Amino acid sequence: MKTEPNVIEVENLTVAFGDFKAVDGISFYVKRGEIFGFLGANGAGKTTTIRCICGLLNPTSGTVLVDGKDVSSHTAVLKPRIGYMSQKFTLYPDLTVRENLLFAGSLYGLRRKDIKPRAEELMRFIGLSQHLNEPVKLLSGGVKQMVALAATLLHNPDLIFLDEPTAGTSPITRADFWRLIRTLAQNGKTVFVTTHYMDEAEYCGRIVLMERGRIIATGTPEELKKQFFPVPPVELVFTQPRQASVREDLQRLNLGTAENFSGGLRVRVTDMEGFKAYAQTREGVFTYRPVAPTLEDVFLKAVSGRNAQ
Amino acid sequence: MKLFFRRVFSVAAKEYKHILRDPFTLVVALVLPLVFVGMFGFVIDLDYKHMRLYVRDNDQTSVSRRFLQEVSSSGYFDQTPLHSPSLADAALQKNNTPAVLIIKPGFGRHVKTGDPSSPGRLQLLTDGTDNVQASIIQIYMRGIVEATTALFAGEDAPAASSRIRTRFLFNPELSSRWFIVPALSTVIIGLLAIMLTALTVAKEWENGSMELLLSTPVRPAEIILGKLIPYFLLSLFDVLVVFVLALTVFRIPFEGSFLLYMAACAIYVTGALALGLVISVVTRQQQAAIQFAFAVGLLPSFIFSGFIFPIENMPLFFQYFTALFPQRWFLLISRTLFLSDAGLAPLAPAFWGIGLFAVGMITLAVFKFKTDVEP
Ligand SMILES: Nc1ncnc2c1ncn2[C@@H]1O[C@H](COP(=O)(O)OP(=O)(O)OP(=O)(O)O)[C@@H](O)[C@H]1O
Ligand SMILES: [Mg+2]
Fold first, then answer.
1. Could you tell me the pTM of the whole model?
2. Which of A156, B83, B198, B342 is the most exposed place for a label (fewest CB within 10 A)?
């Protein structure tokens, strides 16, 4: 993986809408064949960044290179290589799945007779062959998203952008989506995916965390966890029902921040020695064990760390 | 180039499917022409006969009396004598008086000698609030003057009036219907074409599909041409419907070349469709686009086309200004081809007018088409 070249390089990208900077001087790179996760809350600037990389929006300043070529001056060469699944549903509701796919494919200059088998193959890959002749407006949300994915993959792009593909879909659809995304990456595609769901981010090779137009953390999930949690969080289970005082103590002694979870507390410990000492004074009240941090933990810590500055 | 046509074709095919599945477009295309023809056709079909005419004869010669006889026998005017010249203004101020005719002394002498150096003294005051009626009265009156002059001067009728005579040849009954229905087709076809395309690009923006289009290598020219083709065919169908209605329901003769007429329609419709696309490309919102299209489609066809206000009565600036509007040129072509068997040569400027407009609008639509999603 390490030897793969950078397929996307973003340098100091800024996008301003009037006075408001939706993206504020961010830099990052994406390596060929990786699943790149772009995370952030609503309005963080994820969609805006993707649109710049896909050539749909001109940056206010900064450069975006795809394969070393500047996007704004090489759109014609780059567009056929890019598959972009927009956050907003972009297919035509009055056309059938097949018609939508044929249309999307033909815009890339594909011939009808080449698109047909490809569309059928994709719908099998996605597991929705039975819907080919249905008008898109009759499909359920999850199936619609899947069809949008198929339309994105039709021209066999090697750079795939998925903007919140799983937003608003069922857990089953989400699992299916991620299975497909992993398959794509195994076949050498670069997948750039944005999401709100931190659990999904665990599947990504590398991650960028964004907040209000800026990058607040970058790295593989493991690196991020190590970076933000040199001390692992602790799960604390009460053996007696006396939760309130423990939580207050932790706060008062500045040992970490705690959140309730069923039957106990999840503590992002800041001072492990202090915590161990405190636990000894409360023997019999609770037991505890260190757990692996999640990306949710990382995100919360990164955001609170920034806000504290 | 092959790719270009392939993309144009698939945009056209997609648009064709939208048309078939969208009841609104079909209603606009198929029902609206009938509604318009019915609405305008019967409201506008005024009959200009037995119009009230106040007359004062200050000449009192045999010529002037004979002239007034001719006015009567034409059937267009009911005469009422005016006893004092000062009453002329008062008479015109009443709403039911379209015109006042004052024959000045010396009228008879002039007609008899036909001497261009001593002009005839005939004053016609018309109520300009009804511009069409006023023009028609003028045309009638000149015709009658002409006829009277011819009676007294034999074969040597003054050449000055011959231009007016040709108009009579093209519309010998001076039927308002004959004049108005060809103009009506200008309004209806133009408005329909603009409305048909005005929604199409805005719809892509509202629906989100523009983001799909823009992320693919498809180019503005391909989208614009692809969208033009199916609506062009639909509009030509409307052209035929309006044409057949004109001939059957309104019983208008068609004297000119049908092929020439269809060629003009094709060019005119293309310009109007492209204008609709420009509106759609610029507004990006269906609501705004349809309002714009309605205003842009309707107002110039009435005001600047010569339909309501005859071009030759306009101030000079406006005579040139109207040249920007294809409605003016198409109205000319439509009237000419319905009422005469003119060839291409006399209509060449008009064809240039609609042709340049169409090319200009297509260029503008392609040029204005945004290739990024910026607000
Ligand atoms: N065209 C625009 N004009 C003005 N402001 C915009 C425009 N597009 C986006 N914004 C603003 O820029 C900010 C970033 O938007 P963006 O869509 O990139 O966020 P996002 O991370 O994709 O959020 P979400 O999770 O809601 O999709 C938001 O505050 C948004 O309101
Ligand atoms: Mg977004």
1. 0.77
2. B83
